[in-house]
Design goal:
The longest helix is centred in the middle third of the chain and has 9 residues. A hairpin with a 4-residue loop joins strand 1 and strand 2. This protein has a 3-stranded antiparallel beta sheet with strand order 1-2-3. It has about 110 residues and is mainly alpha-helical. The radius of gyration is 13 Å and the shape is globular.
Length: about 110
């Protein structure tokens, strides 16, 4: 991650050009305390990254961060939301070998 745009509330990744919110980063890193705090502060659990359109739930699922997945689901994250490649949180969890951690909670 190379820069933080405070006005947009997002980070930019110069390698892939992806834009992430603080919630995306907390889900990717597997920080349930940060996820909970951000959701309590009305972070958008549905906002996708740009341009690949990955939801916070997809990022947490991909990395096997069960606590983050459960928090997102508790706050109404959409398990059917699709990324640009048409994947969902369940399909990314399965594709990355997170079957035991995420797939039963997302099905």
């Amino acid at each position: 991650l190379d820069s933080f745009d405070a006005s947009a509330g997002s980070y930019n990744d110069s390698d892939g050009g992806e834009r992430y919110t603080m919630l995306h980063l907390a889900c990717w890193k597997g920080d349930p305390r940060a996820v909970e705090a951000l959701l309590a502060a009305n972070a958008d659990a549905h906002k996708p990254t740009e341009p690949h359109r990955q939801s916070p739930l997809m990022l947490a699922s991909r990395r096997g961060h069960t606590e983050c997945v459960l928090l997102l689901l508790k706050h109404g994250a959409d398990v059917n939301q699709r990324a640009l490649d048409r994947s969902t949180a369940l399909t990314v969890a399965l594709a990355t070998g997170q079957r035991a951690k995420s797939s039963t909670r997302l099905s």
